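Dear colleague,

Following up on Tuesday's group meeting, I ran the structure prediction for the two-component complex that the binding team flagged. I've pasted the input sequences exactly as they went in, so you can double-check that nothing got truncated or mislabelled along the way. The structure tokens for the whole assembly follow below. Feel free to forward this to whoever is handling the docking comparison.

Inputs:
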Amino acid sequence: MRKILVSKYMLRCMGCMSCMFACARRVRGSVNVLKSAIRVRTKGGFSSGAMTSTHCLGCDEPPCINSCPKGALQKREYGGIKLDKALCDSCKNCIAGCPADAIFWDDDANLPIFCIHCGNCVKFCPHNCLLIEETR
Amino acid sequence: MKVLYIDLSKTTSTIRFREDLKSYLGGTGLATALFLEEVDLSKPPLSEEQPIVIAKGFLTPYFPVATKSVAIFYSPLTNSLGESHAGGRLALAMSLSGIDAIVIKGKSVKPNYLVINDGNVVFKDATHLKGIYATATATYIREKEKDAGLRSILRIGPAGENGAAFSMVVVDTYRHFGRLGLGASFGSKNLKAVLVSGTGKDYKQFSKESGYRNFFEELHAKATSQLMRKYHEFGTAVNVLPLNELGGLPTENLKKTSFEYAENISGESFAENVLTRKFACAGCPVGCIHIATIRRKFAAEEEWERVDVSYDYELIYSLGSLLGIKDCNGVLSLIEKVEELGIDAIYAGVMLAWLTEAYEKSIIGEEELDGLKPIFGNVEVYKALLEKLTYSEKSFFQTARLGLTALCERYGGHDFALLVNKNAMAGYHTGYANLLGQHLVGIRNAHTDNAGYSLDQENKEYSPEELIERLYEEEVFRAFFNCTGLCLFVRKIYDVDTLLKASKMLGVDIQGDKILEIGEKIYLKKLIFKIKCGFKIEEYVIPERFFETAAGRKMMSKDFVNKAKNYFAKKIKEKIGEGEI
């Protein structure tokens, strides 16, 4: 059983970034939306009329794990990735190793940002675009 | 206070820390102070020495709905203080870039756009973007500047490039620095666009003990509660029917204040027929930006195109009832046109309404209008006129590009020009409070509607003196509120105690009784500048049309207005004294 973040209803997204603020605030202890593990953006400008979100998809066999030369990444039991900060040498290989481009970088900590599928972003989305879903 | 100074003539930029301006807080206060340092009243508004100042509020990005940035400039439309507020992503992007304000001076040799990242400026050639619609300009820049991250893009259209005094700056597609000709100020500097982004490295951190997280989340909960429902549900457009009902919806150049087709263009009708999504400014969970889709057949054999445009109450008034436009799609087509050309939507409506009545009265004819015959309700002729107002080299349209005041000076027709200190009236004709708020007491210039219409709807009998006092206090409070960066829609969520608590968390320790003092300092600074630009309270003339048409079903008397005018003049004299002007 996995419990992972799914951005199921992005057609309804207003681009308010409440999810990004929530992730930054609650998980990273920061007001900086760029520390969020979820990124909401337009699909080619507002005039395209569509929003998209980028975040960890909770792969069954996460390719990022193998991209890490230090073995700092482990699969979390319910989906997503656990980072062992002590082992990370900030090589950024994991960023290239994610096919969904869903790993971001924290310049201050000099460490990658991984979604922990905690659902804090879900709680703050005013249009219920996001949810935590149980999958097998 | 971190201020980014940009000189387009020298293509240089510098950061200056202006701790001396701390008491101006941010937003309108900071922008006013910076503007007054740089402006040169001996030179015209569009000369290259004049500054454009853009400031974010001091609560951005720390609290919900602190989404507004403020532009202050020397308005080519009014030859006076230009002030305009815009949402979108700009305030957040400025905060990410680590700058509280931007001061732009000088003139680029060639068309140019600026890329500002973490306070660093790159000057980019925009020769290829000359004449490109405001809508398409953003697409080109977005594609070119791939790595900018979370960003805001300001841009002008052909109207700004061609010096139309009523041209605006589009911010992130659906928000605008409207009303007072910031588009022409950009154009006069050969500045086509500005992109702002950054990494947020200067942000303040909060300890767990500070209570920041809970406080933020309480405010977020209020912003998504029933308190804000009307802004999210139908949006500002929900005002169309109530205003029509009470006889306050300016219709057909304010010959009337109710419109027989109001139901067709009501917020309810837009929602039912054309609304396709909602957007929000960055950091605002309310989401008041209503987007409608125009579905349009462009050729036989089932050839269709679609375009999305945003609508609000003020646009439905100016490009709807004021022009006698009878359906949603007509209003949307006109909004689409002003977005492309980069013309302020409200001024466009007031200009077109005047042209229509001037044509009806044979003050102007087909000769002046290049063969066009404006009639209330005719969308196509208005679209054609907007093109002429942007591009035509005919003498009539060259004068028109200077604004409606210039047209009236040449052809007459002041009486039915819906102008407020040379700016276009806001979409309310509800009574004395609205009238006096717009014409006399209002200082936020682009934002002429200082809730006077709410006072009018209270159905109380205010004396002229009482009304001036109420409006003055509201304006002074707003002068403070607009320093925060908060959207005025959330003023009920951010009461005085909340404002003080939020400020304190950011290290801005304000005493409750100082709020109006700070607001008044900013208010009077702006008013003094306005007076230096020629505003004379006692001599100020309100166009006849405002008195000829019942406001909220009541005729207004000039006697009442004169009493208010004299009272306000006396009050201001006591406040500022002769020596300061």
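The domain at 226-420 of chain B is CATH 1.10.569.10 (Aldehyde Ferredoxin Oxidoreductase Protein, subunit A; domain 2).

Cheers,
M.
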